ABC transporter ATP-binding protein (Streptomyces zaomyceticus), 341 residues
Amino acid sequence: MTNAIEAEGLRRSYSGDFEAVRGISFTVPRGEIFALLGTNGAGKTSTVELLEGLAAPSAGIARVLGHDPYRERAAVRPRIGVMLQEGGFPSDLTVAETVRMWAGCTTHARPTAEALGATGLAGREKVRVKQLSGGERRRLDLALALLGRPEVLFLDEPTTGLDAEGRRDTWELVRALRDGGTTVLLTTHYLEEAETLADRLAIMHRGRIVLSGTPAEVTAARPARIRFTLPEGVPAARLPLHLRAAEDDGRVEIRTESLQDDLSAVLRWAGENDVRLDALDARSASLEEAFLDIAAGKAGDPRPLAPDTSLAPAGSDSAAAPASSRSAAASDTSLASEAVR
């Protein structure tokens, strides 16, 4: 079995005939970090809940480690870890008591000290959950998701509330888990996080996947840009015509498919004409630009970029999906009880 996660024609409908997930297909090979991104209401949380086995799909097939995660939960649940958007743990328990409580519902759980040390909570064992900062609570959520040494790890917004140092520590931990063979499916609103961590990613919009591939493939599908400010009295019309420059109050932007060649042309023109280019900035397209284009309905042809990924065609006729609740207050009891084996 080469794929840890498989989705084929996956759909999820809610009451009122609202379809939040509209026939998506993708695979995640073992030992890969896969980021599922999307605008608010795009359907990514609804998709992840299907893969976690928290709900049955309205149509299509979901497989995790070769099993249906909803109908074969007994085979899947012991082998996965789930980090929800919000933990919802008893606030009066200490950190150590919370971990021990969860470990009691988990087969072959890591030692408490190991789980807390891996997530930067060593030394906070005796602190009550209600006294933790938002970032520390996210660390605790991650520690509990890792207790059972999962083969597949679902991370829903794992670094929300963390400072820059904590975020990068979490990235290093996720990379180490991947290098050790754990498959990670990640959702995040931090596009830098997806660009830094993900081996591959998919961007959802209105219930469908509209773009997928490696971060490099996704950004390569967008033009690079060159920006600078011209001196007063020097119009952008004097630039070489092939550069297709746009000017706004002296600030010039050039979109290009050939960054090196066009940047050389700009610098050569400036040198030959004794023109100083202030605030010069040249860079390849970013994941953020691709994401914002999709959010604004400028995604263009939504063909997949990854050759091993089969995706349904994208559409734009559906309203945005309602956000699905990810509070563990509604689901962590179910997860805990089904972890008892």
Q: What stands out?
A: The chain has eleven helices and 13 strands. Residues 225-284 form one domain. The longest strand covers residues 3-14. The chain has two domains: 3-87+151-219+289-339, 225-284.
